[in-house]
C-alpha cells in the first residue's frame, strides 16, 4: 500500500528556550570553525601547502628558526659555580658576535638524573636565538662553536 506524504507528517512541538539556546550555540560554534579552518590551515603550512599558496606564506614574512640552548652553572670538576658576571661575559664574547641581531637569556633552575640515578639541581640559563631559516646551515656551525666554548670554559 503506498504511503502518502500526508500520513508521514506529525505535529511538531515548539522548541523550548533551552533547546533554542543550545541550537544557537552549536550553530555559532560551527560557523566559527568553518571560518577559522582556512586560517589554521594556512598557518600550519608544510611543503605541500606552501607550493599551493606561496603568496599567502610570503605575505606573513620570512621563516625563522628558534634555537634554545641550556647552560648549567655547576662545574663538572666541583669548582665554584659559574657566576652571572661570568655567563654575561661569555655571552658578550662568544654569542653576540655571531648573533648581533639579538638574543634572549633567561635565568632558571634545572635538574637532571645523573649516572648514579641521583637528581641533580642547579641554577641555569636558557639562551634563545632566532634567525632566518635561510641561514640555518651557517648558524648551525656557530651554535656548535658556542656549545663547545662553554664546555671548554666551564
Q: Give, in order, the helices and strands.
A: HHHHEHEEH
Strand content: 15-25%
Work out the radius of gyration: 29 Å
Structural class: alpha+beta
- Structure summary, number of beta strands: 3
Structure notes:
It is a single chain. With 154 residues, the protein is of the alpha+beta class. The protein has helices spanning 5-8, 17-43, 47-52, 54-58, 84-95, 136-153; strands at 64-72, 104-113, 119-132. The chain has a three-stranded antiparallel sheet. Strand 2 and strand 3 form a beta hairpin. The longest helix has 27 residues, at 17-43. The model is unreliable at 1-12 and 25-50 (pLDDT under 50).
Summarize the structure.
The chain has 154 residues and is an alpha+beta fold. The protein has helices at 5-8, 17-43, 47-52, 54-58, 84-95, 136-153; strands at 64-72, 104-113, 119-132.
Spell out the blueprint of helices and strands.
Layout: H1 5-8, H2 17-43, H3 47-52, H4 54-58, E1 64-72, H5 84-95, E2 104-113, E3 119-132, H6 136-153
Antiparallel strand pairs: 1-3, 2-3
